[in-house]
């Protein structure tokens, strides 16, 4: 029987994006640099990022802060921006089902149709203990929906529960996957590396604290 070791999965939403989403704002670049500085002491072995420019740019700025750390940048389609799961009305709370389904219907059909396949690929690629004897620390620079999807999976929540989990730009979430133990969310939406003026961007105003 093959041996497995602990995986620490670091998740970060891209920095604040420009209006056309082709790059980061100045604030977004500052957020990415500060997150990279925070991760400088982490033993990262890989940085995966979604294919969109705002995720790639964030990943590159983080990587620049890590010095001689042996971690390569790897583009990953499953780390992209898509709808991970489209629920049926019967799965949802009765008092909010209509509003939730109307919100999902606003997204392009391609995002809703192909998203579940990519979400399954993301679970297969990024979650669970790793083969071998050596623990692994990996960073995925991605988007709000995928972080919600992976967190809800780590907590064994219903598939639809990725909805309502919001993540700030350049905030940090860490999930631990250990052999023979339930997964554990060690950090969620942590902004301790960001000054006050750079926190809460990308987050619904009504949910800011």
Model description:
The protein is an alpha/beta fold and 209 residues long. The protein is 30% helix and 19% strand. It contains 5 helices and 8 strands; from the N terminus they run E-E-H-E-H-E-H-H-E-E-H-E-E. The strands form 2 sheets. A 6-stranded mixed sheet has the order 4-3-6-2-7-8, sandwiched between helices. Strands 1-5 form a two-stranded antiparallel ribbon. Helix 1 (26-38) crosses helix 2 (53-64). The longest helix has 18 residues, at 109-126. It starts with a strand and ends in a 19-residue tail after the last strand.
Any descriptors?
5 helices; two-stranded antiparallel ribbon; globular; alpha/beta; single chain; 209 residues
| Shape call | globular
The largest sheet, given as strand count, sense and whether it forms a barrel, is: 6 strands, mixed
List the secondary-structure elements in sequence, H or E: EEHEHEHHEEHEE
Low-confidence segments, given as residue ranges, are none
Determine the N-to-C terminus distance.
Answer: 48 Å
Helix content range: 25-40%
**Residue share in β-strands:** 15-25%
Task: Describe the strand arrangement of the main beta sheet, using strand numbers.
Answer: 4-3-6-2-7-8
Count of helical regions:
5
Average per-residue pLDDT, rounded, comes to 95
Give Rg in angstroms. Answer: 17 Å
């Amino acid at each position: 029987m093959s041996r497995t070791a602990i995986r620490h999965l670091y998740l970060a939403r891209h920095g604040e994006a420009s209006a056309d989403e082709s790059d980061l704002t100045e604030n977004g670049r500052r957020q990415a640099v500060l997150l990279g500085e925070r991760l400088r002491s982490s033993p990262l072995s890989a940085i995966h990022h979604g294919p969109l420019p705002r995720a790639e740019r964030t990943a590159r700025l983080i990587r620049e802060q890590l010095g001689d750390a042996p971690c390569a940048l790897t583009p990953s389609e499953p780390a992209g921006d898509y709808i991970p799961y489209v629920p049926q009305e019967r799965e949802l709370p009765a008092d909010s089902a209509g509003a939730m389904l109307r919100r999902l219907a606003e997204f392009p059909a391609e995002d809703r149709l192909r998203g579940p396949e990519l979400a399954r690929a993301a679970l297969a690629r990024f979650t669970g203990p790793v083969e071998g004897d050596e623990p692994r620390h990996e960073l995925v620079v991605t988007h709000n929906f995928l972080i919600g999807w992976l967190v809800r999976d780590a907590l064994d929540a219903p598939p639809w529960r990725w909805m309502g989990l919001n993540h700030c730009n350049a905030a940090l979430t860490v999930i631990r996957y250990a052999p023979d133990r339930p997964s554990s969310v060690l950090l969620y939406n942590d902004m301790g590396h960001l000054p006050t003026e750079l926190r809460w961007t990308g987050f619904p105003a009504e949910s800011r604290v």
